[in-house]
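A brief tutorial aside. Many learners find it easier to grasp structure tokens once they have seen a single protein encoded end to end. The record that follows does exactly this for Aromatic ring-opening dioxygenase, catalytic subunit, LigB family. Read the sequence first, then the structure, and try to relate runs of similar tokens to stretches of the chain.
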Amino acid sequence: MTQPPTHPFTGHLARAAAAPPHAAWRPEDGALPALYLSHGAPPLFEDTDWMTQLFTWARSMPRPTAVLIVSAHWEAAPLSLSSTDPHVTPVYDFGGFDPMYYRMRYDTPDATELGARVLGALGGGDPVHQQQSRGLDHGAWVPLKVMYPEADIPVLQLSLPTSDPDRLLRLGARLRALRDEGVLVVGSGFTTHGLPFLGRSDVLGQTVPGWSTEFDAWAAEALARGDVDALADYRHRAPGMPYAHPTVEHFVPLFVTLGAATVAEAPREPTIDGFWMGLSKRSLAVA
């Protein structure tokens, strides 16, 4: 679908089209990093600065052979895999936005080969259910539409089967080998996500609530130390709880990302930080 000519996403697409060609991943490039990103909802398409940050981040890495993403918006056990079919309709799992966002598409190519690679990486552990009718939810297709607007990279979504950090670290470790094949492994959430506790001035970007800044600063320090034990015990150690995460599905994809790291305990610096409508959009890459 097309956007109004003055819409910020129209400008983003024009800038992306004018960018130099994106060099494809080659085996000699080595393993791609794994990402944790704060993904936004449809209003991400109205934030020029944030779209530029995400696109620049994507272009700082080789163009992946495929993307495997775990999103806060698909909590399902047993472990499940989205449709491998091409051009599957996205999941419009949001409400109250401009009708144009419910007409947006992200028509990625066939992902059958990627599905086989993911199943191979997961090995003979817990069974993986193929949900061939399920498309990508907004935690996946919204940021990827900004990062890779051509939609020419195979993408699959893996469900979030638990909120237990240790189990998610182990799941990420099982996906680590995919990075050596040029697959971009992504955990998609939001570093703070206390939507029920946002005030009008927070949403308008005039203020940031204390619980959001406190949790963000604590997470930043723990990541900078590589303190996975502290991060995994965030419910008890992090200031700003439970307001920063009244439900935890937006924070725990971080542990899939850390599990996919070569060394989970290595210090981690943010690639993107700052706040959006009072929420921390801290995002990072791990090698």
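Self-check: The chain has one domain: 35-286. If you spotted this yourself, you are ready for the next section.
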